[in-house]
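Single Protein Entry

Contents — chain, fold
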Amino acid sequence: MNIVFLVSTWATVGISVGALVVGLVVGFFVARAWFKRYLAKNPPVNEAMIREMMRQMGRTPSEKQVKQIMNSMNQHK
């Protein structure tokens, strides 16, 4: 085998693997930042949603009940 062929093959494989790893790392951090920003703008559940759900069930929630539910949900994240 020709030494130039072996070097170019290994260089091609090395560059390809390196580019894949860099792409995966950059993609992970970009997706993580996007998802954090999305959750900050659109929180999954807030106090107003809890109050409204309890009103729809026919209950008038006290502030203490709403805080207890929020604390319970925050503990299980």
